[in-house]
Specification:
The chain is an alpha+beta fold. The protein has 11 helices and 7 strands.
């Protein structure tokens, strides 16, 4: 038997033993004229053909066997709560088993539906008006017995309903916690998907451009080949490092607050090395930088601007190799940060490089998350990516 099952069994035995002790107490109280639940009839204590039992045997049955046997029924209250409650309620109208009946009523209220609970409660309350109707004359003692019985039944059922409400609210809270955890994991997956795309797409596009250059120009001078191979090796190595960094975040378990530690994130100050990589790959880039008080840029705004420039350069490598790219950065505290990346759209069909089109869509989502706005698309013979990002004063 497992530990929870053993603990549950011990609890059931303790409840049955406590109920038996209370039933004995109620029996002695009734013997002295103090009744807490209506007695409609008495349990026959006689042997057929021999008359009533001797007093000591009757007392043993009434104060010993009846409480023990009746309370033993409580061991099955979780499996058959309704049957046990109805049986004990009927027996309580003949014997001092009202404590056991109350425990069974509590179980019904805490485990069964409201409809079933109301039906069983009605069965437990039915002896009260019958008891009063059978009295030759209403007395304060009979009224007190009926009133006490009603209070006890109502208290047992009410306490069971209260605990069931707590249990239901606990289950609902746990379900909501599971839902919130799933939503957090979903947001993490989306964030990591964007991060992997932004980090790896640029590296792989540089690698593809240089590999394609070697493929279309196999007779290039050794110096040029060596330079291209060096860039390919460097890009592949950096891509592996970036991938390991993102995978390291994936392997890190959730912290207590439900978030994973993020890897070091780029800022607007890291754009210069990014542009140098693209220039090394043969791209001509014209940068206009009119950003004032660069050190005061919020980290999320700077990171978003870096990712927008990175994705725009990646798309230019894929779809407009050999064409000039113009980048304009402007902004100041209170005025926001604006950036524009423009490249010429090549005539005819561009190189056949894979692209899902999700990069710029993901950047629109990034910009919206920080309270900014991003637009992109062709305009005549050029393609524009424009973004306006918040920069509070």
């Amino acid at each position: 038997m497992t530990e929870p099952a053993a603990r549950r069994r011990s609890t059931e035995l303790l409840v049955a033993a406590g109920s038996a002790a209370l039933c004995v107490t109620v029996g002695f109280a009734e013997a002295r004229g103090l009744s807490v639940y209506p007695r409609l009839s008495s349990l026959p204590l006689s042997i057929p053909g021999t008359g009533r039992l001797p007093i000591y045997l009757a007392a043993l049955v009434h104060y010993g066997m009846v409480p023990l046997v009746g309370s033993a029924l409580l061991l099955g209250r979780r499996h058959r709560p309704v049957a046990v409650a109805v049986a004990l309620t009927i027996l309580a109208t003949m014997t001092p088993l009202i404590p056991a009946a109350l425990a069974a009523l509590f179980t019904v209220a805490s485990m069964r539906s409201i409809r079933t609970t109301c039906a069983v409660t009605a069965v437990a309350l039915l002896p009260l008006p019958l008891y009063l109707a059978l009295q030759p004359s209403l007395s304060s003692a009979s009224l007190a017995t009926a009133l006490t019985g009603g209070v006890l039944v109502g208290g047992a059922v009410g306490w069971g309903l209260f605990l069931r409400g707590l249990h239901d609210r606990g289950k609902q809270a746990r379900a909501q916690a599971v839902l919130r955890a799933e939503q957090i994991r979903q947001r993490e997956r989306e964030s990591l998907a964007r991060e992997m795309h932004d980090v790896l797409a640029h590296r792989l596009s540089l690698l593809s451009v240089h590999a394609g250059a070697l493929e279309v120009n196999p007779g290039a001078p050794p110096e040029q080949v060596a330079q291209a191979v060096g860039v390919i090796r460097s890009s592949a190595h950096q891509a592996m490092e970036d991938l390991q960094q993102v995978l390291g975040v994936l392997r890190t378990p959730l912290q207590a607050e439900g978030a994973r530690p993020e890897p070091p994130q780029p800022t607007l100050g890291d754009i210069a090395p990014l542009l140098e990589e693209s220039r090394t790959a043969g791209m001509r880039i014209d940068l206009t930088d009119e950003v004032l008080h660069r050190s005061q840029i919020p980290p999320t705004t700077g990171r978003t601007a870096y990712r927008i420039v990175q994705e725009a350069l990646t798309n230019a490598h894929k779809h407009a190799p050999g064409h000039d790219v113009r980048i304009a950065l402007r902004g100041a505290p209170g005025a926001g940060l604006s950036l524009e990346v423009t490249n010429t759209v090549p005539a005819g069909e561009g190189p056949n490089l894979p692209g899902s089109g999700s990069g710029l869509i993901g950047l629109s989502e990034r910009a919206a998350l920080v309270g900014g706005d991003l637009t992109y698309g062709p305009h005549g013979e050029t393609h524009h990516v424009r973004a306006q990002l918040p920069w509070p004063a």
